[in-house]
Write a structure and sequence with these properties.
The protein has a single domain, classed as Glutaredoxin, CATH 3.40.30.10. The protein is built from nine helices and four strands; from the N terminus they run E-H-H-E-H-H-H-H-H-H-E-E-H. Helix 2 runs parallel beside helix 9, helix 5 runs antiparallel to helix 6 and helix 5 crosses helix 8. The longest helix has 18 residues. It is globular, with a radius of gyration of 16 Å. By secondary structure, it is of the alpha+beta class.
Amino acid sequence: MAHIDYFFATLSPYAYLAGTRLEEIAARHGATITYKPLDILALFARTGGTPPGERHPNRMAYRAQELTRQAKKLGMPFNLKPAHWPTNMAPSSYAVIAAQNAGGGDLGLLCHAITRSVWADQKDVAEDETIRACLSEAGFDPKLADSGLLVGAETYERNLDEAVTRGVFGAPTYAVDSGQLFWGQDRLEDLDAHLAGTL
């Protein structure tokens, strides 16, 4: 059975634009998924990337065009300048980790609810109220937002270390057990083909 390690950031617009396509691909191929939220700014710092706010205006202008185009292409609501971005991504990341450890809900839906809260719903995913609502929507106990902080912090840091070790430099990145990496929601089609054995 194939396995996918999903390295992502809860503030990433590209993770939001991925929707639930990863889960659909995994189901189609009988693959399992481990969700590995990480600190994308720390990942940039360790792998030679530049945070969005420090990029050249040309790059930022293209990013704005591309995000808007991708959202339109996918038929997804999208705010290019959300009310609560950037914000602290650790609390929402810890919630994903706690939910994965607890089980009983839909992790893909949880991740999508969190990223949708940022990029479509104008909510702050650093706030407990927003995180609890996302947990509930995905079938998890909303009290998970208040638990597992130590384990969450340790796992969050470990996810970053693992990402760097495995060659990840951006998010979302889909790492499969064959050693292949697929960076970006626009590479999900390639991931699908790889799992099908045609790429």
